[in-house]
Amino acid sequence: MITIPYLTALTTYFSYGLLFAFGQFRDFFRKIFDWWHASNLQGYAPICLGLEDFYIRRLYLRIQDCFGRPICSPPDAWFDVVERVSNDNNKTLKRTTKVSRCLNLGSYNYLGFAASDEYCTPRVIESLKKFSASTCSARVDGGTTSLHTDLEECVANFVGKPAAIVTGMGYVTNSAILPVLIGKGGLIISDSLNHNSIVNGARGAGATIRVFQHNTPSHLEKVLREHIAEGQPRTHRPWKKIIVIVEGIYSMEGELCQLPEIVAICKKYKAYVYLDEAHSIGAVGKTGRGVCELLGVDTADVDIMMGTFTKSFGSCGGYIAGSKELIEYLKYTCPAHLYATSISPPAAQQIISAIQVILGEDGSSRGAQKLACIRENSNFFRSELQKMGFEVLGDNDSPVMPIMLYNPAKIPAFSRECLKQNVAVVTVAFPATPLLLARARICISAAHSREDLNKALEVISRVGDMVGIKYFPAEPQKQQLEENRVKLE
Question: Does residue 476 have a cis peptide bond before it, meaning omega lies within 30 degrees of 0?
């Protein structure tokens, strides 16, 4: 877990306290003025109440220009960001006709497939002509084409499982399938920093939910042992089923899952392993097959493998891979398969083509080059940021690298200053992270050249000095070290 420096924590608490105090002060006068003005909403309940309404009005709206910035080009290494203006103190934002060409450090375009590709794009266009843009139907009605069956077979072979099922939305893959896998009388043990789609899916399942400390196998074993011994609440009967849910790469931390240790513990206690590889599939591993390949875990030891196509493959949707019996069961019971519109045929073709490029089935070595490039780019960028004195989270080989900001005033300052210098970054704050742990999340792509990364490092370094987020002393540069050596000699 993140340990906040004492002085940083103190100033962050003080900043939020100041914002809260002034917000309450303004709300007091707001109530007084509202008494003098008739409301057109008499009899209606307010949509937002209490602290939620207060947070939106007094904290979020002040910096909402840093979020949801519209773009008007493919999310490649560089893209066009639409400029917006506000005439009411940031309460509303209006788009202008001006655009800024910015370096893209915020998209999940890990392998560079989001833009036009020499192999994928022609095949996607052909599938659009043949199958149209949508099936306009659920999979069980008229929404299954030959592309969908080919895609499921392709995904199963790629991740190393007997079978797979695909859905049209990545978020729904977790939130709709978890309630089908487990129900009342079952136990879900979830990592404390799992994605919101897992949280909502677990809540919808009706099972008992317990949380273990983030990426801590020893605490997982403790939780497992205690709850197996206690059994179900009140009745103390044995659990019908136990599922442990973890992520391959945690999207807000950039950390790799300690999968070998977690798998060993689950084997010991006969618990199922559910692995979410949304950010790791296609992005890590020698051949892009995710954390199992990277960490040397046999896919047969992972019972349920989930992933999305919205990151490395430049498309949309998600998948569940597992045994043939599991996938057959999901096809008869999963709402995302029975009721939701099937994945668009051109999107399915994009995924198939991207996998073919990754595996070298397009007759070139571009896939291997992309995988080597994202690994080199990620490790280079991470090491350079750390040398500059930034507090960077995550592990080597991970393309996600959060830079800690902490203080609420530094969130808009960092985002706006980077944008002024044509570098687009994503800042993340409460409620997506704990209140004190605001950060800027950098996502590296294989499409970035070394010149792009050097430009980004220069801008981030300048803005970091300006905003004051270099919490560690910077390492001396090579020139300074050589000059010092000459002086000593």
Answer: no
CA atoms within 13 A on the CB side of 318: 22
Q: Which of 277, 316, 264 is nearest to 195 (CA)?
A: 277
Cα 301 to Cα 326: distance, rounded to the nearest angstrom: 15
Could you give the CA distance from residue 105 to residue 102 in angstroms, rounded to a whole number?
Answer: 9
Q: Is 67 exposed, middle or buried (0-12, 13-18, 19+ CB in 10 A)?
A: middle
Model pTM score: 0.92
pLDDT digits (tens, 9 = 90+) for 315-359: 999 999 999 999 999 999 999 999 999 999 999 999 999 999 999
Q: DSSP string spanning 64-102?
A: GGGSS--B-S--SSEEEEEEEE-SSTTSS-EEEEEEEEE
Cα 75–314–67 angle (5° rounding)? 40
DSSP string over 194-262: --HHHHHHHHHHTSEEEEE-TT-HHHHHHHHHHHHHH-STTT-PPPSEEEEEEESB-TTT-PBP-HHHH
Determine the pLDDT at residue 242: 97
Strands 318-322 and 163-167: antiparallel
Burial 30-62, CB ≥16 within 10 A → b, else e: eeeeeeeeeeeeeeeeeeeeeeeebbebbbbbb
Which of 184, 234, 179, 243 is closest to 210 using CA atoms? Answer: 243
Distance CA 142, CA 148 (A): 12
Residue 289 in tokens: 């097959």
- Residues 74 and 79: their CA atoms lie apart, in Å, by 6
Nearest to 81 by CA among 69, 65, 92: 69
Q: 375-390, pLDDT tens digit by residue?
A: 999 999 999 999 999 9
Confidence of residue 39 (pLDDT cuts 50, 70, 90): low
Sole residue written with tokens 């197996």: 228
pLDDT for res 481: 46
- Cα–Cα distance for residue pair 103/88, rounded to 1 Å: 29
Could you give the count of Cα atoms lying within 13 Å of 19 in the half-sphere of its Cβ? 20
- Could you list the beta-strand ranges (E) of 133-219: 163-167, 186-191, 208-212
C-alpha gyration radius of the chain: 24
Q: Which residues of 224-259 are buried (b: 16+ CB within 10 A; e: fewer)?
A: beebeeeebeeeeeebeebbbbbbbbbbbbbbbbbb
